[in-house]
Amino acid sequence: MKTISTAIPDVLIIEPKVFGDSRGFFFESFNKKSFKDATGVDADFVQDNHSRSAKGVLRGLHYQIEQPQGKLVRVVRGAVFDVAVDLRRSSATFGKWVGAELTEENHRQLWVPPGFAHGFLTLSDSADFLYKTTDYYAPQFERCIAWNDPALAIAWPMSGDSPQVSIKDLSGVLLVNAQVFDGATKSSSGG
Length: 191
Fold this sequence. Notes:
Elements: E1 2-5, E2 12-15, E3 19-21, E4 24-26, H1 32-39, E5 47-54, E6 58-64, E7 71-77, E8 79-86, E9 97-103, E10 109-112, E11 116-122, E12 126-133, E13 142-144, H2 167-170
Antiparallel strand pairs: 1-2, 2-10, 3-4, 5-12, 6-11, 6-13, 7-10, 7-12, 8-9, 8-11
């Protein structure tokens, strides 16, 4: 497995070693020891999720203010532009984002640590998106940052049309008004 750094040091792109021939391919999509050795992250994943999205669907930017989730994400069919936004107020990269294209062909995964908002835009006709989480889904703690917050200025690779966004995601707040993470209490009010 190969680890690729991003502009935010805690967010990592992971490329597994893929063995392929005319019959197809094989790769180890997760191995706790190899993941820790390659990334330095000792994550205990407790939940696996699978979503399917049509072209132009944008999901996010989601996070849990309590029971924050680290996520290891990948695409098994199609392609997405995947984004992580640093919401740790004490971080030098607070309010910054990184993005990576994850496809069924490149087999890349993105490690999104706890303390980050996460979202993706479907680039292919449809995409199957898998992610492992380090804590359980807790809807009472779920929060959403507006995908089009001008302060974040995320460069979503769209071809002119507005993305398809859920009603829940349409009510996402601007970063300046969002609850974010701080070192002492895990979360604090924005403003």
